[in-house]
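Re: manganese (II) ion structure - here you go.
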Amino acid sequence: MDIPLPDLDRHLVAQFQETTRSARRVIVGTHLNPDGDALGSALAVSHYLDALEVENEVVVHNGPPYNLKFLPGSDRIRHQSQWDDHDLAIVLDLDSLDRLGKVRETFESVPRMILIDHHIPHHEPGDLRIVDPTSPATALLLAELFLAFEHPISPAMATCLLTGIVTDTGSFRFRNTTPDSLAIAATLLKLGGDISLVSEEVYQKRPLAATRLMGFALENLQLSPDGRVCWSVLRLEDFDRLGASEEHTEGIVSELMAIDTVQIAALIREPKQDRVRASLRSRAGIDVASAAREFGGGGHKNAAGCTFMDESIDQVEQKLVQRLRQCLES
Ligand code: 5GP
Ligand code: MN
């Protein structure tokens, strides 16, 4: 099979290969509220370690959301570690260890850490860092890594990696879509990755509560007088009334962003008492990551998020919308 070999730093590739091959017991993790790139990458690494016959476990703050349960190996995701003597941690798709949530301490107690990520570097944790903020997905970096040292990619791994690439590029519609992401996706298809399964499970299936929540959020959206900032607020009582939860908010902010006058969109929600979260999106040339960082969050220039503890959702709405309007001026 004709497979293009990617252009990764040879030294990093060799170190990754050597460190994982000589590991004895590995803990693999990713950020809380994991998305397709996070879980696709973590499970691909777990399948890789299985192939090396290296003992491993995947430990994540929360379980797979509804639309990612199909990922091969998703049943192995744990909320707590079963061992306390790991010699290696591998963390994926995060820029700072506080994004690990309640399992952070477990990861921090491991003597050696590999970090693979594509966010704008933040605190720079990890002993071996494979970080490229220009890459559209962590799963793409991983696929390139495996191809670089010609590790055989199984169909299960290929489906996990494809999921990360497909979801983080918005099915190859976002500006971050590169020629490499399409080429590697084609390679993963050749290796048995099931792209129609990914599309159906991720995009063509949702519980009724999620559709009702989206309907409510769209019906009640708000616009700045100039029509350039759009936001919607979902309160605890809305989640309760509709029987919905945080994972059912997936996709709503991109519908707000699709309104033709809108330059910045935000979905502000309180899925649990005293915890308000915001998803931020923007068009090219407008940076919302800096606003997210000011509120303790982060992300990418055009897709970022932040979390507010112990603040009323009305307060958050007011200060966030005000800050987002400033983003348009800079
Ligand atoms: P989403 O709105 O889809 O949850 O997140 C969009 C992007 O922002 C993702 O890259 C995600 O990792 C990042 N992000 C979302 N919430 C937070 C947060 O609270 N802290 C940080 N550092 N990044 C976040
Ligand atoms: Mn990602």
